[in-house]
Amino acid sequence: MALLATVLLLISRLFSHDMRSLAASGDYASAVVAAEDRMRAVLAADPIYEGDTHSSDGPYDVDVSVHPVLEDRTEGLNLRLLEVDLTVHWTSGGKYKSYTLNTLKTVEGKP
Questions:
Q1: Full domain range(s) for residue 66
Q2: How far apart are the C-alpha atoms of 45 and 22, rounded to whole Å?
């Protein structure tokens, strides 16, 4: 009986751990979708605005940073290279979590 009880206890712990892992992966999947949607919107904006912004999107807080990079390399060209950082923050199960996307975008013209 003791052996059977020990085995059942171990199986139940593994099962509860798997359920927590599934819930966490669902949180991350939703955050990734929200981050990708927001990144598409930022990159599609015309004109794209430089600077830092913070907003809320449902259960997520979103920080976006758009800044010029490699200005010395684009000096003689009629374009700018912008770095776009987007971070989604949320709390799940009392724990702070975040997911970050980073990309570059070229835009015509000089500031």
A1: 2-108
A2: 35
Assign 84 to helix, strand or coil.
Answer: strand
11-66: pLDDT as tens digits: 777 666 666 665 666 778 888 888 888 999 998 988 888 899 998 878 889 999 99
Residue pair 81/73 in contact (Cβ under 8 Å)? The answer is yes
CA atoms of 58 and 90, how far apart (whole Å): 10
Domain count, the chain: 1
pLDDT digits (tens, 9 = 90+) for 61-102: 999 999 999 888 878 888 889 999 999 998 877 888 888 999
Q: Which tokens hold the place of 12?
A: 């139940």
